[in-house]
Amino acid sequence: MFASLTPRTLTLAALCVAAMLPLSGANAQQATEIQVTYDGAFQPSELHAPAGKAITVKVKNNSAKAMEFESKTLKVEKVIPSKGEGVVNVRAQKAGRYEFFDEFNEKARGTLIVE
Amino acid sequence: MLAALIIVFREVFEAGLIVGIVLAVTRSVAHRNRWVAGGVVAGVAGACVVAAFAGALSQLFEGMGQELFNAAILAIAVIMLTWHNVWMARHGKEMAGELRAVGQAVAEGSKSLLALAVVVGVAVLREGSEVALFLYGVAASDGGTAMSLLTGGVLGLALGGAVCLLTYLGLLRIPPRALFTTTTVLITLLAAGMAAQAVAFLERANWFTALDTVVWDTGWLLSEDSILGRALHTLIGYTDQPTGMQLVIYVAVILVTIALMRLVGSEPPRRAAAAG
User: Is A73 part of any domain?
Assistant: First the structure.
């Protein structure tokens, strides 16, 4: 298999990937941006966003430990190091309540209300 | 303590399944323990490095470093698994016959072992870096709770090891003749699932936005977060809300694997190495 990974094959693979790139980044601009800070608990613990639009949640972790921002229903999961900030991209959602939490400390929970 | 146990176990679970499969796949290959152990050790070391540089990593690519890193290492695992399958298509029959060319098969077998060791390393690295981060956090907290959390963590690790052992022993119960086909199918689906996961990471990073709408939702039937859902997520890439692109890539990996296996398997062994 390695023998068959000729430069030609690789170029072809690279072209396939490159062909897909222009399709990306389209909805990055019009995303709703939300800020949330974490210090053992989410602040604020209730977020609001409009339905049908991509959402960018900026999570600032002020605690001394790493945390993992996770939501089962939003299908996101992201490690945010101590004193760091993480950007979580959420695709456009239907109206509803979506719970999120810190996977390393499940007592810290919050809700994103899409309306 | 229970919380720590659950967190660690959840992370180790996937890696345990994958290591178990690799052990079963390579059961008759000489020195395989060395390779698999090497993969685990490299994975753990890598996980610690990734955890230590988690901050820097997440800052890369406009905050999407983690996602792209995960997608990249998953892609490596997909290539390695596919290569293993293709390699087995050519040499599997000889090795199953056991009589022929043990020397040559072992020499070339080490190439396939390297591929699988990489897969093990990648699985351990991905899951391990979260465990390492969690345990770093534990170490940073105060004494009493730290001890109990650590105990939970170690128990979680042990349970992950048990999953690995059970997977391995379970697969060994399959008769040798059927084992080759079973593991080929398992590895193909594992690769397709990993490719679909890689797509999910690229979608989260906003690098892939084509066909990124959810096609169906089977969460009511089998949640991805149930223990069975998680096992199927690792093994065959089950996800309760797949996007169009994930499905396309999933099917593509399976078709490419079948095509490559047919192509290489039908060629005479000697010429196959020169082709390409």
Answer: yes
Look-up: residue for tokens 């029959």?
Answer: B93
**ipTM for the assembly:** 0.74
Residue A6 domain-assigned (yes or no): no
Is A104 a residue whose pLDDT tops 90? no
Is A75 in Cβ contact with B58 (below 8 Å)?
no
> What pLDDT is attached to residue A48?
94
Whole-angstrom distance, CA of residue B82 vs CA of residue A13: 15
Tell whether B54 lies on the interface with A, counting CB pairs under 8 A. yes
Residues 43-102 of A with CB under 8 A from B: 64-66, 68, 72, 75-76, 78-89, 91
Give me B91's structure tokens: 């040499």
Higher-confidence residue of B149 and A55: namely A55
Quick check: B207 pLDDT over 80?
Answer: yes
Residues A19-34 have a mean pLDDT of 60
* Domain boundary assignment for chain B: 2-268
In a domain, A2, yes or no: no
> What CA–CA distance (Å, rounded) separates B212 from B204?
10
Whether residue A81 and residue B205 make contact (CB cut-off 8 A), yes or no, is no
B243 - beta bridge partners?
B214
Say if A61 falls within a structural domain.
yes
Q: Could you tell me if A4 lies within 8 Å of chain B, comparing CB atoms? A: yes
Q: Residue B138's closest chain A neighbor by CA?
A: A65
CB-CB neighbors (< 8 A) of A27 in chain B: 206, 209
Contacts of residue A60 in chain B, CB cutoff 8 Å? none
Given CB atoms, is B226 within the 8 Å cutoff of chain A?
Answer: no
Query: Which residue in B113, B152, B111 sits closest to B131, CA to CA?
Result: B152
Alpha carbon distance B197, B18 (integer Å) = 15
Residue A64 to residue B130, Cβ atoms within 8 A: no
Say if residues B203 and A88 touch (Cβ distance below 8 Å). Answer: no
The length of chain B in residues reads 276
Domain count for chain A:
1
**B136 touching A, CB under 8 A?**
yes
Q: List the domain range (segments joined by +) for residue A82.
A: 28-114
Q: Which long-range contacts (CB under 8 A, 24 or more apart) does B53-56 make?
A: B54/A66, B54/A79, B54/A81, B54/A84, B54/B129, B54/B133, B55/A81, B55/A82, B55/A83, B55/A84
Give the CATH number for residue A88: 2.60.40.420
pTM: 0.81
